[in-house]
Design a protein that fits this description.
By secondary structure, this protein is of the alpha/beta class. The chain has a single domain, classed as Roll (Ubiquitin-like (UB roll)). Helix content is 31%, strand content 33%. It contains three helices and five strands. Strand 3 and strand 4 form a beta hairpin. 22% of the residues are buried. It comes from Trema orientale (Charcoal tree). This is RNase H type-1 domain-containing protein.
Length: 110
């Protein structure tokens, strides 16, 4: 079962305010400090903006921005699931990734 399928009502968005009890995962991918790598960063916060979990790792590879952000989302969601920090929302600054994955979640991408 895919990571997205395990999360059910997950919403991907630019910015959102959380209601009490909800968690938000904020993700970002940047060029790594070494050649041929990307840095993956993720923070899980609650409605009071307290940090519940954080992930920072280096991933070997030199991909296009869309793939970098998609890999970041995948690894960040796996991290969240492993620690039972199930986000209701994912916030990213990658408009293309948000658009594509929202369409895939709704079943419009085959």
């Amino acid at each position: 079962m895919s990571v997205l399928a395990q999360l059910g009502n997950l919403r991907l968005c630019w910015k959102v305010r959380l209601s009490s009890g909800a968690l938000k995962l904020n993700i970002d991918a940047t060029l790594g400090s070494g050649k041929g790598a990307i840095d993956i960063r993720a923070v899980i916060r609650d409605a009071s903006r307290a940090i519940c979990g954080a992930l920072a790792k280096n991933f070997p590879g030199n991909f296009r921005v869309f793939l970098d952000e998609s890999l970041t989302l995948r690894d960040s969601l796996r991290f969240a699931l492993n620690y039972n920090l199930i986000p209701k929302f994912v916030e990213s600054n990658s408009r293309n990734t948000i658009f594509a994955l929202n369409n895939e979640v709704s079943g419009s991408l085959e």
